[in-house]
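hi support,

uploading two proteins for the ticket. first:
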Amino acid sequence: MAKGGGKKSAKALRDAANKLLADNRFARHQYEILETVECGLELLGTEVKSIRAGSANLRDGFCLIRKGELQLHNVHISPHSHAGAFFNHEPLRVRKLLAHRKEIDKLRIALDQKGLTLIPLNLHLKGSWIKATIGLGKGRKLHDKRNEERRKQDIKDAKQAIARL
């Protein structure tokens, strides 16, 4: 008999319940993220299956507030491979984000400032729910990107120097 008996540890169960499904690493390069908000998504069944399979692309996505609702635009979720054409979803459809009224109002006030935008940062599981983390970001100029890369490189060099000692 093999040891372990098939039981998973509590940490393994927690990690499986909080799995990262899609990440927008490009957004953290293009924007300085000032604030983040976790929202639910209004999805169709085939969209849920596709996201869990890892076929979501957040790179060109953005969020808008229309008629008091938070909407996710231009996020590509590939059609589910095991569903027929009639039952499948449209890959680039506008999806509704679920957030509290106070959070939406707070974001609306921040968006009225010049140069701020809402960007989807990642899609992740929280228990059995798919959640989206959106960030309020200010666009970076080229010199800001260079300074950020230089700062990261300095931190990396310092860590390597400490490791050599």
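and the second one:
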Amino acid sequence: MRHPIDIVAMFAAIWLLAALMLDVLTPKELTAVMIAIAIGPAIVITAVFYYLRCPRTDFAVMFAALWLISDIAIAFVSPKELPLWLLVLGFMPAMLIGIVLHWQRLQRRHERLPLPSAKRG
């Protein structure tokens, strides 16, 4: 069973790790505190959906959307322009999840019911 204190500890550790890693990757003018403030709401919302046992697909799509929003928030709070590769990194989870969902849909297309045909009489 998912205990709320375990979830808080897990997501707090992920939040700190993400803020420190992004601090290393971004320009020196953007501090870890600014990054932590920008990604904090996304971490909290993700933790709430994890606690509510959101289905995996919905959780993955929501995570990708929040990651992209956090990337945009970091770009807004940055006093200096971010490198292009860092902005592209924000789109990667959404793109990967989109590819996986599309691939699953293509794999299951034979399971769908065929369209009814018009009867000729």
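thanks. also noticed: The mean pLDDT is 89.
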